[in-house]
Amino acid sequence: MGLRDMLRAIREYPAARAELETARSELRQAQQELEQSRETCESLWFTLDEQKDHTKFLSSKAEALQAALEEFCPRLSTPEELKRFYDAISPDMDPSGFTLYRMAKELTGIDVPSCFPYEDNRGLFEEMSGHSLLDWLTAVHFRAVDWDIIPGSTYESATLREVDTSTSEYCAFEKQLYAKVLERMGFQSLLEPEQEAGAITELKQHSPQPKRGGETR
Questions:
Q1: Which of 96, 128, 131, 198 is deepest in the core (most CB within 10 A)?
Q2: Which class for 114: exposed (0-12), middle (13-18), buried (19 or more C-beta within 10 A)?
């Protein structure tokens, strides 16, 4: 190494030393972060194991409760029993009633907004719960709707009448609806044997066709 190289090395030494110290500091910080990450990872694995154990416990508990229900609860057969059981579990499993409404829609083929274009255009159904939508669907299915022409338009507004729930047709509808909902929720072992074949097709055949937008009856 010549004199010139030595002088250049002496001049560059402070900067190189500072750079080395910075690198060492960054290395120490990285090691600390790595150690913290390891501790966090170990904590997460411990939490995951606890959650797995808790999930396994809840699964076993659910199976035990299901077995107890099957042992002590008589088979649900009447519409009143089916509805009562649904009402007991719905606050946790179907709080807004959309499972119930979607099943009724599946059984009957009725889409509420399509049947009521005037109310749908006004946004009436946008924030409506499944339970309220079911009231409208039931009214259509059992023809409990009065229609009034909107002046100056081809639309009709709907007024729902009270559905006669004492008829055999309504009881059959309600029984199948709640039985199918409970079956979908996993309680099929508590139900009586499947209803006669063709019931779903029959419901759809007797359902009124949806009205097209702006069309009067």
A1: 128
A2: middle
Gap between the terminal Cα atoms of the chain: 105
**pLDDT per residue over 28-63, tens digit each?**
999 999 999 989 998 888 888 888 888 888 777 777
Strands (E), the chain: 145-149, 156-160
Q: How many CB atoms lie within 10 A of CB 128?
A: 19
Distance CA 88, CA 169 (A): 25
Among the listed residues 102, 118, 100, the one whose alpha carbon sits nearest the alpha carbon of residue 110: 102
Neighbour tally for 178: CB within 10 Å? 25
Q: How far apart are CA 37 and CA 11, in angstroms?
A: 40
For the whole model, what pTM was predicted? 0.65
